[in-house]
Batch of 2 targets.
Target 1
Amino acid sequence: MTDHNPQDDDIFLEGAIVTLRQPNIEQDIIKGHWHSWFNDPVTTQYLIHGRFPVNKAQQAEIISREMADPTSLLLVVLDKKTSRHIGVLCLKFINPVTRSAELSIVFGDRSIKGAALESVALLTKHAFDRLNLQRISGAQHTDLWQWMNSLELIGYQLEGYHQHYAARNGEKYDVASYAITSERFYDLQKQRGGNICSADFKGLLAQRGLENRTEIMRLFFENLYGS
C-alpha cells in the first residue's frame, strides 16, 4: 500500500509535467512567493502588471476576489515533480450564452520546458469538455511571437493585430490576438489519438515553427490599408 499525499486531493487537472489546482491563499501567497512575480520587472516585462508594487495582503485580496467571481476559473500551476508553485492561469469572462472565455497566463518560473503549454492545453480541454465552451481567446505583446508559435501546436491561431495598444518604457507597443475553437481542438485531439499534447510531447515541442507569423500579420494589415 502506497502512502497517500493529502495534497493529491486538491489536484484538479493533471498532466505529464504539471498539475493544476485551486489557489490556496495561505500556502501560495502568505507562505509563498506569488506576489513577488508582479514586482519582478522581468516577469512583468510583457504584462499589464508591474505599475504598482504588490504585497502579500493585497495579492491575497485580489485572488480571493477572483476566486469568488462566477465568470472566472483561476488555477495555480505546480511542477509535478516538486509540487513547486510555478505559474497561474485563468479563464476570465466565462459567458455561458456565447460559450466563450478569455485566457490569461503568468509564469513566475519559466525554467521547466513545456510546462506553460501543457497547462494551457489542460485548461483548454477542461473548458471545452466540462464548461461546454466553444471558443477561447487571448492577446499578447507582439514580442512574444515564439510563445504564439507554441500555442499553435495545440490549435490556437492568430486572429488580429492591434497597433499602439499601450506604452511601456517610453515606447508604444502592439498586441496580437489569438483564439481556439472547440471544433479545431477536438479535430486535433482526434488526430493525436485522444491526447492534444500527443504521446510524444517532446517531439511535439520540437515541431514549433520558427517563422514570426505575428510580423507577417502586421505587414498584411499595413499593406491592406497602405499605412
Note: The longest helix spans residues 115-129.
Target 2
Amino acid sequence: MYEQLKLDNQLCFRLYTASRLITQAYRPYLEPLGITYTQYLVLMVLWEKDNLLVSEISERLMLDTNTVTPLLQRMEHEDLLVRTRSVVDARQKLVSLTKKGRRLEEQAKEVPACMVAKLPFLGNDPTRIQAFIENLNGMIDMLKE
C-alpha cells in the first residue's frame, strides 16, 4: 500500500472532518433560532451589510449562485429576508432582511463565543483566534487560484 494513499495521512480528510463537525457543533445554538448553519452564514453577511445582490452574497460566501438561490428562496419562505428585482438590472435580485431576520442578530450574538469555547486550543485569546483565521484565509486564497 502506498503511504500517501492512507486515510490517516490525508490533510484534506482532517479539514473535511473538522468542517463537518464544526457545522454539527453549531446545531444546538442555531436550532432554537430556527435556522441552519448555511442560513446563519447568509444572515451574517446581511447583518454586516443589508440589501445585497444575490451575486454579492454568493461571492462573499464563496458559493455558486445556483447553490445560494434555493437557500435564499427557503429563507424568504420563512420570512427571514425578501428578494426584489434590482432597479438597475431587472435580471438581478436584491436581498434584504425582514424584521424577523434583523431580530435574529440579537438572539445570535452569543453564538460565536459559544463556538470559540468549544475550541480550547485557541483559548479566549483574540490574537490567537485572529492568527488562526489568517492561516485559514491564506490556505483558502491559495486553493481559490
Note: The first helix runs from residue 11 to 30.
